[in-house]
Amino acid sequence: MQNEATLLRQLKSDDTKELAFKTLVELYKERLYWHIRKIVISHDDSDDVLQNTFIKIVRNIHNFKGDSKLFTWMYRIATNEAITFLNSKARRHQISNGILQQLALENLEADVYFEGDEIQLKLQKAIAQLPRKQKLIFNMKYFDAIKYKDMSEILDTSEGALKASYHIAVKKIKSYLSDN
Amino acid sequence: MTLKSDITSGFKVPKAYFESFDTDFILEQTLKQTVSESGFKTPDTYFEKLEIRLPKTANARTLQQLNKKTTFYLSGIAASLVLLLMFSWPSETPQTLTAEAIENYLLNEEIQSDEFASLLTSDELDNFNPISISSSEIETYIFENAALESLLID
């Protein structure tokens, strides 16, 4: 796999940025897609947000100073893009974020790109009950096994707070699943 | 010679680290035994066919990326045109719409940026530069202000 520093240098050079960007997309498209998908739920919305995320990455790559890992910086952009998208969608439909989430879950049952069984649908409903940040933490740790150290850079939250929040999230979800 | 039994490595762990580790790990594992996958899937060959459509040049900014001030400027133009049409169009039941009401309507309805763009000619769009701030400064500002950007995403 290409060294991150080399890739970054190529992304910042006019001569090599096009090819380097293709490499970047190949390396991270699936990880970023699944991260976004768990936030916005619908495949079509995820595709839009993924496009916007990569456009933003390439537009702002010259601002990336290397203070964090490239992948955590990209995850941060993807997270912000997904949240911004949801806020904007809720505002456009003049509904709250909670109602928007509820509608997304109702649509999920008929979504051709959701093949979950009853327990997976119930899990999504349980996740939807969590506060937004706790939801992010749960998804990143439970499904993607992102390390707390990296998550700390992505969400700008201390590792201790992340661990505590994850612990609480898992307990809430277990409780939801046993009660419903 | 034997090692003294009271010699330790000197390393320490946070208080209740192992108890907490066991609890979190077991808690997670028992949940994963019940359900471990999200259930989401993608269309067949989605990732193979995925293409990121980058703007052709750095200057080819879409209206989506224009800042709030610019959006209001465009709204103003659109509102002016609507007002112009409204007053020049013969009507039996004249309505009293304020510029503010029209602007709110344009901002709140699902009017896409390309619809705003359709009100302007290509030359006007190419030469459109109402503020003397460089593109990179605007992009940096928008990038660092997610809340502002949320107003412009659509």
Please name the defining characteristics of this protein.
heterodimer; A: 180 residues; mainly alpha; Rna Polymerase Sigma Factor, Chain: A; Arc Repressor Mutant, subunit A; 2 domains; B: 154 residues; 8 helices
Outline the structure in words.
The complex is a heterodimer of chains A (180) and B (154). By secondary structure, chain A is an all-alpha fold. Chain A has 9 helices and no strands. Chain A has helices spanning 4-12, 17-40, 43-60, 70-92, 97-108, 118-128, 132-142, 148-155, 159-179. Chain A starts with a helix and ends with a helix. Chain B has a domain at 63-89 and 96-150. Chain B has helices at residues 17-34, 46-49, 68-88, 99-108, 113-117, 122-126, 135-143, 146-150. In chain B, helix 3 (68-88) packs across helix 4 (99-108). At the A-B interface, helix 2, helix 3, helix 4, helix 6 and helix 9 of A face helix 1, helix 7 and helix 8 of B.
Short description:
The complex is a heterodimer of chains A (180) and B (154). Chain A is mainly α. Chain A has nine helices and no strands.
CATH architecture label name of the largest domain in chain A: Orthogonal Bundle
| Oligomerization status of the protein chains | heterodimer
Q: Can you summarize the main beta sheet of chain B?
A: none
Structural class of chain B: mainly alpha
* Beta strand % of chain B: under 5%
What's the overall geometry of chain A?
Answer: globular
Considering residues with a beta carbon less than 8 A from a beta carbon on another chain, report the largest interface and each chain's count.
A-B, 50 and 34 residues
Rg calculated over all Cα atoms of chain A: 17 Å
In CATH, the topology of the largest domain in chain A is named Rna Polymerase Sigma Factor, Chain: A
The structure class of chain A reads mainly alpha
CATH homologous superfamily assignment of the largest domain in chain A: RNA polymerase sigma factor, region 2, helix turn helix motif
Order of helices and strands of chain B: HHHHHHHH
Major sheet description of chain A = none
Counted by DSSP, the helix tally of chain A is 9
Distance between the termini of chain B: 76 Å
Shape of chain B: elongated
- Counting DSSP E segments of at least 2 residues, the number of strands of chain A comes to 0
Counted up, domains of chain A total 2
